[in-house]
Automatic annotation (TrEMBL):
SUPFAM superfamilies noted in UniProt: CheY-like
PROSITE patterns according to UniProt: RESPONSE_REGULATORY
Lineage: Bacteria, Pseudomonadati, Pseudomonadota, Betaproteobacteria, Burkholderiales
All residue ranges annotated as the Response regulatory domain in the record: 4-119
Residues recorded with modification 4-aspartylphosphate: D52
Annotated protein name in UniProt: Response regulator transcription factor
Domain of life: Bacteria
Alphabetically ordered keywords of this record: Phosphoprotein
Length: 120
């Protein structure tokens, strides 16, 4: 079975929207916390993670940095989603290792296009 796309967001409704948007690209798994995401990554390594920067009290940036610094997971493509769009926010996301940084709100069409580019 092909590697899944993993959506990590603490908002259930947004996870569902993103999952439904990305189904045209293949199997999509979801997680609401860093712990859930790490368990899924360990069990079934995704080809792409669509990761919210703010996961409640947890940090998507820290998860991104951790995954990109581990040789076993450094090849996973990461698309960060954030409501924070200042230059410093984007720079911090890219410095954490993200392959792409996309602002919320986003159009599902733009999200699918960005995801498709990252997994091509």
């Amino acid at each position: 079975m092909a590697e899944p796309i993993l959506v990590v967001d603490d908002q259930r409704e947004l996870r569902l929207l993103i999952r439904l948007s990305l189904l045209s690209l293949g199997r999509v798994e979801t997680a609401g916390t860093v712990a859930e995401a790490l368990a899924l990554v360990a069990n079934d390594r995704p080809r792409l993670i669509v990761l919210d920067v703010s996961l409640g009290v947890e940090s998507g940036l820290e998860l991104c940095r951790s995954l990109k610094s581990d040789p076993a997971t450094s090849g996973i493509r990461i698309l960060l989603l954030s409501a924070y769009g200042q230059d410093a926010d984007v720079a911090a996301g890219l410095a954490a290792g993200a392959d792409r940084y996309m602002l919320k709100p986003f159009s599902p069409k733009d999200l699918v296009g960005a995801a498709a580019e990252l997994i091509a």
